[in-house]
Amino acid sequence: MLVAALRLLARLLARLPLSWLHRAGAALGWIVYWSSSRYAARMRENLFGSGVCNGVAQCEALLRRAIAETGKGMLELLAVWFGSDERVARLAVACDGWEVVEAAGTRGKGMIFITPHLGCFEMASLYVVQRLPMTVMYRKPKIAWLEPFMIEGRRRWQATVAPANLSGVRAFYRTLQHGGTVGLLPDQAPSGGEGVWADFFGRAAYTMTLVGRLQRATGAAIIMAFAERLPGGRGYHLHFEEVPTARFDEAALNRAIEAQIRRRPEQYLWSYRRYKVPRGVDAPPPAKAEA
Where are the domains of the chain? Predict the structure, then answer.
């Protein structure tokens, strides 16, 4: 009953203009920031320590923008997950790099789309599945009642969802072995035994090995996808780039993610616990002091 009521409310709110949702989301971003000192401290630490801004004044200005953009990312899910197919399709107002995707598709080895917690990452996958069948991996949310909404929002057009567990990984392998397409968030902190420590903005981050293992096993192309959030609720600009696979490893993966974040650092989810030590994993070795 609760889920049905929330679904109805979400669909009603999804009819609001995206600009309204973004304005409300910006306010929500500040409410969340000021309501949790732990959240605020983590966001500041991750952003200020990343090197994407220089000096306190510049970092403070970027932080203010990031707080608002994070809130926008929360409420825009209403439009992206619960809007009609026609409306969601219209939200993508520009795209560059799709020819890279088309060229990679002709090789017949499959494609791995990687989309960091940057911009409207949900929109990035939905743009792809309007044009290609794709299996998308998802991690169950901590709030159980959110899961059906997450699945409903992602399972449209030619999308198939797979859980972030062994069965999902097997589904990914099968899809790629048949020349298909898969998609995942590459900057999620994996569980113990599923990652290695690699540098991310100058700090050791436990980084998933799945992307590299999938690519080496299948020869698939790796495509970076980024849905840039445009100001004024105008929609999203999609960007696609192929990531070189020669000598590809987890350090190369993080460098590719960093390069995308530097394009629009205010749109990255700096509040994400990217540097946590997963259960059962030894802490990374201390960073070497510069000579």
Answer: 2-267
